[in-house]
Design the sequence.
């Protein structure tokens, strides 16, 4: 039998590449250290400079990815810009069962799968103030070829169309503090009831 422990809250964050999702997520982890776990995904994409295996992603081969698919090891999986991405099922479900809140930072197709299989999850879509601004930010990052940037922009347009289907939409404009305040409120609202008594 269950010990009656409350389950953790599963947060699903999406938003186009370059929208500042990672920065907002990092701010949340900095403030709520120990109250939220990040699910590190597996991907067949090669690491970008500075990315660390096991921290940013588990960088695996296409063959390994297919093996995990066969073993039903992914809670969700999707292709994005020609690469495969997947969320480790056991890692996430074990933490939720232990009462730990978990955050997934995933694209829209995978998010749809999670939102369907775990309807109690809380979904948040991070939007750019405008498409032009997104393009500007993406080019400014300077880590990818023109062809890849074009592909990401095209994908971004398609992704943004899904924003209204999420529980919450946050515009990350010129004031990241304002966007973070909204995110923080959502986090507090959804986790307060399921966490232990607050520290005085
Ligand atoms: P990037 O290659 O820029 O790190 O990520 C590309 C996209 O894939 C981003 O939208 C990111 O949120 C998403 N992504 C990362 N991990 C996963 C995952 O496990 N599943 C899905 N569906 N998307 C993911």
Sequence:
């Amino acid at each position: 039998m269950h010990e009656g422990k409350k389950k953790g809250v599963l947060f699903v964050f999406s938003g186009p590449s370059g929208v500042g999702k990672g920065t907002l997520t990092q701010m949340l982890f900095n403030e709520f250290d120990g109250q939220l776990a990040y699910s590190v995904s597996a991907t067949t994409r090669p690491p970008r400079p500075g990315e660390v295996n096991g921290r940013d992603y588990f960088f695996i081969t296409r063959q390994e990815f297919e093996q995990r698919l066969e073993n039903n090891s992914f809670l969700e999986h999707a292709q994005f810009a020609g690469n495969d991405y997947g969320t480790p099922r056991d890692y996430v479900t074990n933490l939720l069962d232990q009462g730990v809140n978990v955050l997934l930072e995933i694209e829209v197709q995978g998010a749809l799968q999670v939102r369907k299989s775990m309807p109690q999850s809380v979904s948040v879509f991070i939007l750019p103030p405008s498409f032009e601004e997104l393009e500007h930010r993406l080019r400014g990052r300077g880590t990818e070829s023109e062809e890849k940037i074009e592909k990401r922009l095209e994908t971004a347009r398609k992704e943004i169309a899904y924003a209204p289907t999420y529980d919450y939409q946050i515009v990350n404009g010129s004031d990241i503090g304002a966007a973070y305040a909204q995110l923080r409120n959502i986090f507090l609202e959804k986790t307060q009831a399921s966490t232990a008594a607050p520290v005085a």
